[in-house]
Design brief:
single chain; 2 helices; about 15% strand
Length: about 90
């Protein structure tokens, strides 16, 4: 469960993405990662979360970033292989 600070960060980052970045980035950078600094509104693009975060840390070394996969609902997907019962 997230604490109040994490929830506030989520909401603020999602609002920045939806209002300012989505129209600007989605067509050209779909599938890439955007790391957002919610205090400044600065954002950094990368092919991976690590790449986007590293770019952000160069400019804002002590900030916490929020990562979004452009054009998708989730940054990562999880696949689980379940063995068949009785095998």
């Amino acid at each position: 469960m997230k604490n109040g600070h994490a929830l506030a960060l989520d909401r603020k980052a999602e609002a920045i993405y939806r209002k300012k970045l989505k129209p600007k980035l989605e067509r050209r950078y779909k599938g890439r990662i955007v790391a957002i600094d919610v205090d400044s509104g600065d954002y950094f693009l990368g092919r991976t979360v690590l790449e986007a975060m590293e770019k952000g840390r160069k400019k804002h070394p002590k900030k916490i970033f929020y990562a979004i996969r452009i054009g998708y609902r989730a940054v990562h997907s999880l696949r689980v292989l379940c063995p068949f019962a009785g095998r």
